[in-house]
Amino acid sequence: MTPTVTALRERKRGRVAVELAGRPWRVLPVDAVVRAGLAVGRGLDRPTARELGREVRRAKALATATRSLAASDRSQRALEQRLRRAGHSSAARADALASLDRAGVLDDARLAETRAELLARHGYGDAAIRADLRKRLIPAETAADAVAALEPELARARRLLEGESLTPARLRRLGTRGFSRDTVDEVATTFALEA
């Protein structure tokens, strides 16, 4: 005999208490209940229960993804990896990522551009910026576009050393901050000619 949904009671934080045959059954995410088509008077047959299970898994993956994005901006690959480590099924991961992509929340190009600009403002060279974007699992082409959109590395290096005397330690610092050897050599040559 198929149990019938006898009540749906709203709970806090987007949850619904489902009652079957007059008895409390489960508290579920409201979007999963709606998407599965649960309604008072409807029987909870096997196909509906399967659909409800899929929707609950999808809702949990989406909740994990949004919490993760609230903590820190992430690339699509990094978020997918995080969901996989959290044990969400491939279908639930794909649904959650597709929902966030449709909402415009996932944008690897925007993430790469803002991260590259931030690091450039903080005195990092192109190599360090590319390494940071690679660590964040930004696609290589997207990372390259973000770095190419920055002010030239040589101009950034010169600005970092403005008003300072040139010393070997300052040149080494440029190298450790990800500036290329060519940029460091050009800065050293420029400073030597000005002196």
Structural features, described:
With 195 residues, the chain is mainly alpha-helical. The protein folds into two domains: 5-102, Orthogonal Bundle (Arc Repressor Mutant, subunit A), CATH 1.10.10.10; 108-194, no CATH class. 62% of the residues lie in helices and 10% in strands. The chain has helices at 30-36, 46-71, 76-85, 90-102, 108-121, 126-135, 140-148, 153-161, 168-176, 181-194; strands at residues 5-11, 15-20, 23-29. Strands 1-2-3 form a three-stranded antiparallel beta sheet. A hairpin with a 3-residue loop joins strand 1 (5-11) and strand 2. Helix 2 packs across helix 4, helix 3 runs antiparallel to helix 4 and helix 5 packs antiparallel against helix 6 (126-135). The longest helix is centred in the N-terminal third of the chain and has 26 residues, at 46-71. The radius of gyration is 26 Å and the shape is rod-shaped. The mean pLDDT is 93.
Q: Secondary-structure map with pairings?
A:
Layout: E1 5-11, E2 15-20, E3 23-29, H1 30-36, H2 46-71, H3 76-85, H4 90-102, H5 108-121, H6 126-135, H7 140-148, H8 153-161, H9 168-176, H10 181-194
Antiparallel strand pairs: 1-2, 2-3
Short description:
The chain has 195 residues and is mainly alpha-helical.
Helical content (DSSP H or I, runs of 4+): 55-70%
CATH architecture of the largest domain: Orthogonal Bundle
**Cα Rg:** 26 Å
Count the strands?
Answer: 3
How far apart the termini lie comes to: 93 Å
Mean pLDDT: 93
Q: Name the CATH superfamily classification of the largest domain.
A: Winged helix-like DNA-binding domain superfamily/Winged helix DNA-binding domain
**Overall morphology:** rod-shaped
The strand line-up of the biggest sheet is 1-2-3
Beta-strand percentage range:
5-15%
CATH topology of the largest domain: Arc Repressor Mutant, subunit A
SSE order, one letter for each helix or strand? EEEHHHHHHHHHH
Structural class: mainly alpha
Note the total helix count.
10
Outline the low-pLDDT stretches: none
Q: Tally the structural domains.
A: 2
Largest sheet entry: 3 strands, antiparallel
User: What CATH first level of the largest domain would be assigned?
Assistant: Mainly Alpha
